[in-house]
Design a protein that fits this description.
This protein is of the alpha/beta class. The protein contains 11 helices and 9 strands. It comes from Hydatigena taeniaeformis.
């Protein structure tokens, strides 16, 4: 049976956009509709309830609510969730936004973020922890090259590490690349972010926009992939490696086993995901 709950934290524009794809996929996998209600309640077994309880919380109206906090320092992307199809599924307390962005500057995101935004985010995560019976891990999703995803996410991670020191912290991070870079200081932001999180993260699963673009063009047959396509690939990868935390099986491993087998030393914690099969729907029908 699943060993405990997982709380996810999505930070920055990249993390917020990835969260939309991740929770849309999670809802489909667990049979949850856009309103948070089960699509077919009669088909749910006791095991389905336990596996869904890892990433979702069931409220007093039998609505499945994601155990998540989504934070960005500017409101545009978070407002897309507040006004989107899945708006009723999320707890409004977990959708946090500020008034201005961090201008792709790590130092501004780390030192210049309003303290009220940090306090609101930490309090939201605390409330999510209070709704768990056995917290298994905290999952971070952010971009290394951004101001909010880099600086502000590091600030939040440091505070959480102080408060929940023994809880494993897992990262799903998007690494900057030179082709889709929107700012010349992204490499500097990434270096500072890596240095800050070295002693905090249990392990990090890295993605890169250039590699994701190659997957979309060469494997999935998308001529001009947009960021929404890249986010869906990241969502599939996230769903794949968290499946071992949500389901049991003969070849699945617990979080402790993953850490023991894949992280020989604390600093050697950067992992690569493998995702297969990768092909178009037409090809899949003939496989």
């Amino acid at each position: 049976m699943p060993l405990g709950e997982v709380i996810s934290v999505f930070a920055g524009q990249c993390g917020t956009q990835v969260s939309q794809a991740v929770w849309e996929l999670m809802a489909v996998e667990h049979g949850v509709g856009p309103d948070g209600m089960l699509i077919d309640p009669s088909a749910e077994s006791d095991y389905d309830k336990q596996s869904g309880n890892v990433f979702f919380m069931v409220d007093n109206k039998d609505r499945y609510v994601p155990r998540t906090t989504i934070v960005d320092t500017e409101p545009t992307v978070v407002d897309e969730i507040r006004c989107g199809l899945y708006r009723t599924m999320f707890n409004p307390r977990g959708l946090i936004s500020g008034l201005e962005d961090m201008a792709n500057n790590f130092a501004r995101g780390y030192y210049g973020v309003p303290q009220t935004l940090i306090d609101t985010t930490i309090n939201s995560i605390r409330k999510e922890v209070e709704h768990t019976d056995l917290l298994q891990a905290i999952l971070f999703c952010h971009a290394y090259g951004g101001g909010t995803g880099g600086g502000t996410a590091c600030r939040i991670a440091e505070l959480l590490d102080t408060e929940f020191m023994k809880i494993p912290k897992i990262e799903v991070a998007v690494f900057p690349d030179h082709q889709k870079s929107c700012c010349v200081v992204e490499p500097y932001n990434a270096i500072l972010c890596c240095s800050t999180l070295d002693d905090i993260s249990t392990f990090s699963v890295l993605c890169e926009n250039e590699a994701l673009t190659d997957i979309c063009t060469k494997k999935l047959g998308i001529e001009r992939p947009a960021f929404s396509h890249l986010n869906r690939v990241v969502a599939q990868a996230t769903s794949g490696f968290t499946a071992t935390l949500r389901h049991e099986g003969p070849v699945t491993a617990s979080l402790l086993q993953l850490q023991t087998n894949l992280v020989p030393f604390p600093r050697l914690r950067y992992l690569q995901l493998g995702l297969a099969p990768l092909c178009t729907a037409d090809v899949m029908s003939h496989e």
